[in-house]
Amino acid sequence: MILLDLNAGDERPIYEQIADRVKFAVAGGALRPGDLVPPVRDLAKQLVVNPNTVARAYRNLQGEGLLEPVRGIGLEVAEGAVERCRSARGEMVRRWLRRGVEEARQSKMDPAEVEAIFREEMARPVTEGNGEVRRG
Amino acid sequence: MILLDLNAGDERPIYEQIADRVKFAVAGGALRPGDLVPPVRDLAKQLVVNPNTVARAYRNLQGEGLLEPVRGIGLEVAEGAVERCRSARGEMVRRWLRRGVEEARQSKMDPAEVEAIFREEMARPVTEGNGEVRRG
Amino acid sequence: MILLDLNAGDERPIYEQIADRVKFAVAGGALRPGDLVPPVRDLAKQLVVNPNTVARAYRNLQGEGLLEPVRGIGLEVAEGAVERCRSARGEMVRRWLRRGVEEARQSKMDPAEVEAIFREEMARPVTEGNGEVRRG
Amino acid sequence: MILLDLNAGDERPIYEQIADRVKFAVAGGALRPGDLVPPVRDLAKQLVVNPNTVARAYRNLQGEGLLEPVRGIGLEVAEGAVERCRSARGEMVRRWLRRGVEEARQSKMDPAEVEAIFREEMARPVTEGNGEVRRG
DNA sequence: GTGGTCTAGACCACG
DNA sequence: GTGGTCTAGACCACC
């Protein structure tokens, strides 16, 4: 099983996507406090991405206090990371939904129609592999 | 009343925001087929934005067939624009909602929680003036 | 006059030194809120450093809310930056002094001796060009 | 009483911190010429650190002539070590203070303010156990 | 013109 | 082995 993969259809910077994957992994329990995240070089190879890009993602996560360096060993998930990742996840989801709702509202779309779209999406079957081919 | 204004907190390209405003205005009925959109310079001044940026937005809208030039007069909203804008709007809303739902699903968030967030956002009061003072 | 220069004798990462110089420039009034910092490429050339390194410094400063992007124009010093840079400066000075005092205390050095050293350093004449040759 | 302990908040290399502790112990009289320093393994265990790291610290201290090997016995504090440690200590303290003073000067900080900070730090109560629980 | 992203690869310090 | 820094240079989007 692959811990981290990228959404090919995501136009956001790669380093940001990687950071989000880590947050999600922590929020979902796949990574627990004290666990070491994959080494920069390994993850870079796995994602077919430059090590610098992974390093940047990890650096940002350190800046948010979600990862902590263990000198000479690697980076481990910080103590209080789970709660913060959970709330970060919630915020992220809220951000997307809010944007959709806002767009609809501003263009005076019928709320019932928005609701319908939401239901459809919630009921949509899981997209295998995120519905897109891996980059490599 | 102000036809077009910009969301200050929006990190998307300005020209794209402008184009969306126009689409929304058409979808919502504020602009009807045959109406002239504001002159580039006027709108640029109103939004405190580089005229090139407005021009680019209009150019893209022409490329989508939503605006049509009237020689010596300006740009008018095209005939079939309303339907196309409505569907474009729907697609846009769906795209945002889908992304939120997807993120939640991938990180194993409880669907009930997603639902709750959606409800909150739907019930959220309209942001007055987009929550920020005009730039000018 | 040169706005920013580097201490050659500083073993800290270059990007951090650059960020500190900017903070100092703001704290000292050389840069004021609303001013644009030098373009990445220009400053990189001036300091004989890779543009990425300058960019990283600027990026961190943005993260601290001290710089704000003006799209297509550059980076400007943020509104409340002066106070925060002043306090950042104070913290930095305190950090160095504390370390010296701590070292002395832990090794049971006579406080009078520490005091004497401090006086000498305070009275030391200004080192021209930071006492070191420019890197280039 | 514990001869050597590490400051948890110190970002300097551990081997350097260890070497400094030894120097301080010598400068302060806790270790006298002819005394044996703790065996590498013991100290490593005590500090919860890789033995290589302690070995490196000792190696550097040997290189500086502050420790001398006694075949089959261990490492002892060298003859002239006290004076050298004292002066090393002084240099170190001066270096930190100078840096603080320099930073302040370069950013045009009011000397009185620098003085005040120095006083505060001199008056600061001793940090018990270095302000952090032992790692082990 | 501006900043931002990404790649490629080298080098270093630490354990 | 680990992460961190830095360089060099390409490419992009935006204004």
Polypeptide structure, described:
Four copies of one chain form a homotetramer. In chain A, helix 1 packs across helix 4 and helix 2 crosses helix 3 (51-63). The first copy, chain A, is elongated and about 55 Å long. Mean pLDDT of chain A is 86; it is low at 129-136. Chain A contains five helices and two strands; from the N terminus they run αααββαα. The first copy, chain A, has helices at 14-28, 40-47, 51-63, 81-106, 111-123; strands at residues 67-70, 74-77. The two termini of chain A are 17 Å apart. Chain A has a two-stranded antiparallel ribbon with strand order 1-2. Chain A has a single domain, classed as Winged helix-like DNA-binding domain superfamily/Winged helix DNA-binding domain (Arc Repressor Mutant, subunit A, Orthogonal Bundle), CATH 1.10.10. The longest helix of chain A is centred in the C-terminal third of the chain and has 26 residues, at 81-106. Chain A has 136 residues and is mainly alpha-helical. The interface between A and B is large, with 40 and 39 residues. The structure holds a DNA duplex (15 and 15 nucleotides).
